[in-house]
Design a protein that fits this description.
- It contains ten helices and eleven strands.
- A hairpin with a 2-residue loop joins strand 5 and strand 6.
- With 269 residues, it is an alpha/beta fold.
């Protein structure tokens, strides 16, 4: 088993020896693709674990298993010290939320912002003291969207604004963990910095844990406290962000770092 630091009782989420197989077919021939192979990672409370690797490394599949969207072939997910059982999945969906790569494809184009942001409450049957409209406006204001735009459709926003709406939706159920799957990779560089700063601020305000999936190690340097590096479905290196980014042991990680573009000096997150 390959294990990613950190470990111990203070972990909000643990993935223990996760494996995911997909059966593929070509004509009458079937084969098994191992997307994630015996990977263990941990997300400390109120901290950020960045999982990095090139396309096809298995990092998004790992994220979906950690977020209870995919059932592992083997291994288990542990949240707040308790192994996740099928009976607990629905309840834990309040605790674990996603922010996806393409904000427009993850927002219903026919729904207003109010409907989008409050959807998790309706699906979970969560009761709140405020009316839904006021609740949505407060969340929009918190993520930097004009609360008066609560009746607009997603198509009336820029990509960065749409991603902020996706973050507001993720916050609706007051989760403890947010999984960001390439959440800034579709945005312009300057907008990336703004959204990353928002995520950092929200973490400080609400004590959120982040599982941050990305291929961009420049982004990792700005947001992560811990890093796990994946290649071909396996974990090849892990540790603190400073350790991995400043003194990587593995050649694969070193090659990833060589490909990092220079980022603006004013990205002072």
């Amino acid at each position: 088993m390959t294990t990613a630091d950190p470990a111990g009782p203070d972990l909000l989420l643990e993935a223990r020896s996760l494996r995911k197989e997909f059966v593929t077919s070509r004509g009458l021939r079937k084969s098994t693709l191992v997307a994630v192979d015996d990977v263990s990672v941990g997300v400390p409370a109120a901290s950020t674990l960045a999982v990095v690797g090139e396309s096809g490394s298995g990092k998004s599949t790992l994220a979906r298993m950690c977020g209870l969207l995919l059932e592992p072939t083997a291994g288990e997910v542990v949240f707040d010290g308790q192994a996740v059982t099928p009976e607990a999945v629905q309840l834990l969906r309040r605790e674990i939320q996603f922010v996806f790569q393409d904000p427009f494809s993850s927002l219903n184009p026919r729904h207003t912002v109010e409907q989008i942001v409050t959807a998790p409450l309706r699906y979970q049957g969560t009761r709140i003291r405020k009316d839904l409209r006021t609740f949505a406006q407060d969340l929009l204001d918190r993520v930097g969207i004009n609360p008066d735009h609560v009746d607009r459709l997603p198509s009336q926003f820029s990509g960065g604004q749409a991603q902020r709406i996706g973050i507001a939706r993720a916050l609706a159920c007051r989760p403890r963990l947010i999984i960001c799957d390439e959440a800034v990779s579709a945005l312009d560089v300057s907008v990336q910095a703004e959204v990353l700063q928002l995520l950092v601020d929200l973490q400080a305000d609400y004590g959120l844990g982040y599982l941050f999936i990305t291929h961009d190690l420049a982004v990792v340097r700005l947001i992560a406290t811990h890093v796990a590096v994946m290649q071909s479905g396996r974990l090849v290196e892990s540790g603190s962000a400073d350790q991995i980014l400043d003194a990587p042991r593995e050649r694969y990680t070193q090659e990833l770092l060589k490909a990092v573009p220079a980022y603006p000096d004013d990205w002072n997150i």
